[in-house]
Amino acid sequence: MRIVLAASEVVPFAKTGGLADVAGALPLALEELNQEVIVVMPKYKTIQDSKFKIQRIKQDVSYSVIGNNIKVYFIEKDEYFNRDGLYGDKSGDYKDNLDRFSYYCKRTLELLKEINFKPDIIHCHDWQSCLIPVYLKTLYAKELFYKDTKAVLTIHNIGYQGLFPKEQFPRLGLDWSYFDMEMLEFYGKINLLKGGMVFCDIINTVSPTYSKEIQTKEFGFGLEGILSKRRKSLFGILNGVDYSIWNPEADKFIVRNYSANNIGDKYKNKEDLRKICNLPFKKEVPLFGIVSRLAEQKGFDILAEAIEKICKMNLQLVILGTGDLKYHVLLGNMVKRYPKVISLHLKFDDCLAHKIYAGSDIFLMPSKYEPCGLGQLISLRYATIPLAFKTGGLADTVTEDNGFMFDDYSKGDLIKTMGKAIKTFASAKKWNALMLKAMRYNFSWQESAQKYIKLYEKAKGR
Ligand code: ADP
Predict the structure, then answer these.
(1) When comparing pLDDT for 456 and 284, which is higher?
(2) Mean pLDDT (the chain, rounded)
(3) Which atom number of ligand 1 is nearest to the Cα of residue 293?
(4) Residue 252: inside a domain, yes or no?
(5) What pLDDT band is residue 411 in, cutting at 50, 70 and 90?
(6) 229 C-alpha vs ligand 1 centroid, how far in Å?
(7) CA-based end-to-end distance of the chain
(8) Which of 20, 77, 162, 200 could potentially form a cystine with 192 if both were Cys, beta carbons 3.0 to 4.6 Å apart?
(9) Shortest CA distance to 453 belongs to which of 123, 38, 40, 109?
(10) Which residue from 120, 179, 177 is spatially nearest to 152, judged by alpha carbons?
(11) 90 compared with 446, residue with greater pLDDT
(12) Into how many domains does the chain fold?
């Protein structure tokens, strides 16, 4: 099959979260399964030509190669993409995001014609590429070139929908009749994710449990109605992990590589992490790690409520992330009061993330909702035991067998479960067995990519 993957961020070129991990790894797995794949993304300021051996094919289009021969095309337009951020800056989202991403979608559809890549499937991801299915069924509906092209949309987080004021609608180049409750309108605003969901051939999310959850009022963020209507076209395929990047045996960012055969060496990484974090050496104290956006969705509301008590427990905690200012301030204050217990790193730092996955004993992921979650999957491979709230992809991947779960979303249950983990950690024998078990779990992309191919086949049949 000929597949185009359209995503606004792709590892290794640009990343703000799990979407980039998926968009970087899925094409590689599809190529392994003999599919013909290309990727199209915007060319941001941070994507440097020299670093990625980028070659120019047009005044406004260049490409780099990943895997054996997967071309990743970059759409250039300085006015829109030559900025420090991907979607916004300190003062919030860029005001012209509708122009930026509608341009990206239109230019992608034109580019495919120019390079004569007639796709069976365009696989779109999140709101940024949602105008592709919309345009395919409207402005491009009569184009022979796209006669047999189907659109698959993967929703990575239904909480982010791409909402814009009604007044901007004419900029999309669509007739006003599409500004309708059954299409792109959402309570008087333009909703790009909704548009994608209505016009694509198949909707997918990143875990089976989340695909069910988003059909309910509690998790649907107002789009549960549309999803229920389209439930026969709604699927959930779990994300995988790119083990060529996340592998403690070969990880170049960590001080000591290790595997199940020399798992004792993991502790060299714990020592290193504590040193970097200025946390004192304390025998038999578990080190909890967090790598996350600092947002309520990720459980920071209950974590904030519980933090005082947590700091008095027999543990140490390393947090890496950026997000809501209120959590920056609150956690910053806790560090001042408990410098021997908490270490806080308010930044995006890939190297430190690797060190935390390797050096922590327990990976904390108390997300209120979690479409899939990659942190828990990565941490399992590093024998860092996940502790998570039972929701979405966490419920599909963390069990009593490989980690610790709590099912009442409250500070009380979080603290209780952390206590249980600390107690288990005190038994070296039990902990060792748990680590070995965790490492054996396999969430590679191979199986998920096979499921995606089946999904593409299904879309082709529509
Ligand atoms: P999200 O909802 O943010 O996409 P995921 O768990 O799906 O959450 O994926 C998050 C990805 O981003 C993981 O690869 C995680 O390691 C990485 N990540 C998150 N915050 C940071 C950070 N501050 N520094 C480095 N990597 C980060």
Answers:
(1) 456
(2) 97
(3) 20
(4) no
(5) very high
(6) 32
(7) 15
(8) 162
(9) 123
(10) 120
(11) 446
(12) 2
